[in-house]
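Thread: Newbie trying to understand structure tokens

Hi all, I'm a second-year student working on a class project, and my supervisor (Dr. K.) asked me to get a predicted structure for one chain before our next meeting. I've only ever worked with sequences, so writing a 3D structure as a token string is new to me. If someone could post the tokens and maybe explain what I'm looking at, I'd be very grateful. Here's the chain:
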Amino acid sequence: GKKDKAKMAKLREKFLAGAAANGIDEATAGSLFEGIAKFAEYAFNKAHSAAYAVISYQTAYLKANHPLEYLTALLIHEQGSAEKVAATIVDCRAHGIEVLPPDINLSDVDFSIAERAIRFGLAAVRNVGAKAVEAIVAERRANGEYKSLAELCRRVSGQGEVGKRVLDSLVQSGACDTLGERAWLLAALDRAYGAAERDRRDAESGQVSLFEGDSLPGIDEEFGITVEQPMAAEDKLRLEKELLGLYLSDHPLKRIAAELARLTDAQGIEITSELQGQEVRVGGLVRDARRVVTKKGQIMAYVEMEDLTGSIDVILFPRQYEQHHRLFQPDAMLVVAGKVDLRAGNRSNGPTLPDSAEVEAEAERASVVCEQAWAWDDPGCAPIARSQILHLVVPESAPVEMADLAHVLATHPGPDEIVLHIRLRGHEVVLTPNDRYHVAATSLLTAELDRLYGSKVASVETIRNRAAPSRGRGGGQYNGGGQGNGNGNGNGHRNGH
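---
Reply by user tm_fold:
Sure, no problem. This is what the structure looks like when written as tokens:
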């Protein structure tokens, strides 16, 4: 869908002229050209389609039946792209697979399986080349684990591409935390590396220190360096994000997750083409904001945000950019209301973009077109009113008494309707309990129901409004929470999650 329209128009004229010269009437030639143009948007022949289908089936089988092995292999394949690695790690968490941080004594060069978890590979740390970590891992396998920073520096000194910058990146990323407190390791690295290099050069030149063996401090010595306090948790997270490309051990949003849940009605993983044209309110952390200029000279922006489930693409057209751009600073935690739309245009086209009608003409992936934005703690950002339905699939011969189910539901009172899907002899009976069993359809309730039945049985469906038509670009009004009529008809849009 990224054809040059001006060139295509010229080629159409040339095609029609050539067809006429060969005795083909204009209507037939025009129809043929339109078919060719449509095929060129994105299509391929049946043999290609069949090959894709086979690969799709194979990978789907592996992911469904061997998720640990499949996702580990996928992470190895994607470790050159921090964005893809981050998205796959979100997928790992959705499958209940923990991704462990890098560890100088436990990590392999690439991502690896560690019992029922995945261990982050050293080569995936930024500013650390594959050759360097291959040498570090080979030395560890040959001569045992590294016991201290001094010993690490001594054993890898002179090993190919293992320089101070490599060690600095490994320390900052947390890969050397088993060797000491991170702030101290960073403070001591210069002396430890310098001492190891001096010893190596002396050994290579045949020089022997008057105090042989004393130039490099032992495991328990500290180079005379002390630090006033350990590295703060927020600084560790910042370095983790810089060196690993994502927050792995923790996430800044976790401390406000409950509040964001009250203020929003959708997560990043839900922003897909299935919600096209629907109103949503999302919350997250600003990763990046890129300003661009339209042909009219107006400023707009493409913003990349992230929440605990993945990334969220947000578009600010000129009017909204003028109103809200000061909020969209790196690492700012925001709530954004708007409509879901398919990403338009090619973000790599350069600094000047066409105007809004053309910007939205060629879809790529779903984005949120911003209508309103707030800082997460802005008093003006009120909790959203949502219309939700809790769906509970009761398996046949489920070893749970209805009284136990009623007790769980009664401990989560709220406004949300319940629909029971009861499996009986290969059939499904759908029941809607009376108002007595309306609940607060939260993740706490779904988790408790899943534990009660011993499997995934509960899901929440959100009923959304379709966004009002825009009055020019950026003129639409966000109406707040969805208020569908409960059966998916009228203006409501039902979205299960």
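A couple of things are worth pointing out once you decode it. DSSP finds 15 helices and 14 strands in the chain. Residues 213-220, 344-364, 471-494 have pLDDT under 50 and may be disordered. Feel free to ask follow-ups in this thread.
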